[in-house]
Amino acid sequence: MKMPAPDESILGRRAEIAAGLGEIIGAAHVMTDAASLRTYESDGLSAYRQMPMLVALPGDTGEVSRLLAYCARHGVKVVPRGAGTGLSCGALPLADAVTLGLGRFNRILEIDYANRSAVVQPGVANLAISQAVDEAGFYYAPDPSSQIACSIGGNVAENSGGVHSLKYGLTTNNLLGLEMVLMDGEVIRVGGKQFDSDGYDLLGLMTGSEGMLGVITEVTVRILPKPPMARALLMGFASNDSAGRCVAGIIAAGIIPAGLELMDRPAIHAVEQFCHAGYPLDAEAILICELDGPEVEVEELARRVGDIATDCEATSLRVSESEEERQRFWLGRKSAFPAAGRLAPDYYVMDGTIPRRRLSEVLNRISELSLEYDLQVANVFHAGDGNLHPLILYDGNVPGELERTEELGAKILKLCVEVGGVLTGEHGVGVEKRDLMGEMFSDIDLKQQQRVKCAFDAEQLLNPGKVFPTLHRCAELGRLHVHGGQTRFPELPRF
């Protein structure tokens, strides 16, 4: 993973830059010592690390605005960072950049039940929103596995999902408005408490932009009333093929579960040892299917899903009889990533999306690749929308094993594109998938995407080195700078 070479002229001004930022946000909120900087050297993809030049922790929108304006004037790069739980190196620091942490933006500003919305700062944890509105019978639907720690600002930057995204959508489907600061310090607002705004869909543009267009300082999200009833079905299968057919059968029947998750045998055993969720250890794959809504509807849908599972030769079938049992089913799924730590010293979490009809085929091909590279792969993923999360197990202490893991991961992602899928579902591109973007997009596509980046950040100071495999200067992409009224080819008529 090659990153841009550090600018020695910036590094030589490190003390000056730290002092300048200290005047804006207070010296106590500018970190320069090695011990403090070490905390920020990676995001959740910890195989790749880089110490930041310094870390700045502003406390309000005005401080962010002045900080970015200062960095723009002095040509200093900025890497925005939320909770640091991302899995694509989207918040990987640069040696010559300021890491802008948003941990102090941790307040829920407003809860508006009448308009079913909440206004929060970007450093608020995902789960904290649901906890804040729980007593009133509401919740925030997107629920990434890291929801206890991940920040809502990071969720917006990566367009995070979760186990309940099949029915209730990703972050983009639950986002109403944003306040953000552009690189020149300008503060803009996009959207509001209404569902749709006039004009260009700037809200959609910002969602999933990975900190490359601006720094989010306020988020307005949709909150939903809790469904009257929710039940989960735990189904075991003798093969991944059978589980894949069951997924296809449920969707083909017009049933949209609140969540539909698949785990294969290695993941099942790791989870069961970790949290004793009650999963069938004799199964090659399990499905967890949650149904919610009015009681009559849930009971009918549970019966229909059970019939589909039986037709697909399910080896076991359990329906949750209590809220405690339902939560236990999900505890296993939510614990899958930490549980994988029992299987190997290290693991690499992948993220790709495929058409549901190709599910069995892709799982079989991943098994073949696992044997080819002599690396075990545990599969845990959102089966309902085809969002795969293969966990490649390896030992980083063995020379060459990380490199072999990277090669296997690239093969899996290329496979996703080959069958009609995409490189990422909810983890973003960052640095991890940057050099694979050419597998999915043409050079023309990538240049057009970079033109959007140039429109917001002409000097490319915000989170550089991410997403785009080849970074072009804005002038190379058609931006024209006119000096002293002198244009190129003055003999040509202008409109």
Structural account:
The protein is α+β, with helices and mostly antiparallel strands and 495 residues long. It folds into four domains: 8-101, Uridine Diphospho-n-acetylenolpyruvylglucosamine Reductase, domain 2, CATH 3.30.43; 108-225, Uridine Diphospho-n-acetylenolpyruvylglucosamine Reductase, domain 3 (2-Layer Sandwich); 229-418, FAD-linked oxidases, C-terminal domain (Vanillyl-alcohol Oxidase, Chain A, domain 3, 3-Layer(aba) Sandwich), CATH 3.40.462.10; 444-495, no CATH class. It has 16 helices and 20 strands. It has helices spanning 8-11, 14-25, 34-38, 61-73, 126-133, 152-158, 165-168, 202-206, 240-252, 265-275, 295-311, 323-334, 336-339, 359-373, 401-418, 443-456, and strands at 30-31, 54-56, 77-81, 97-101, 108-112, 117-120, 138-139, 175-181, 187-191, 215-222, 224-225, 229-237, 259-264, 285-293, 314-319, 346-349, 352-353, 377-382, 387-388, 390-394. It has a seven-stranded antiparallel β-sheet, sandwiched between helices. Strands 5-6-10-8-9 form a five-stranded antiparallel β-sheet. A four-stranded mixed β-sheet has the order 1-2-4-3. A hairpin with a 5-residue loop joins strand 8 and strand 9 (187-191). The model has no long low-confidence stretch (mean pLDDT 94).
Structural class: alpha+beta
| CATH homolog superfamily of the largest domain | FAD-linked oxidases, C-terminal domain
How many beta-strand segments? 20
Mean pLDDT: 94
User: How do the strands of the widest beta sheet line up side by side?
Assistant: 15-12-14-13-18-20-16
How far is the N terminus from the C terminus?
46 Å
Q: Helix share of residues?
A: 25-40%
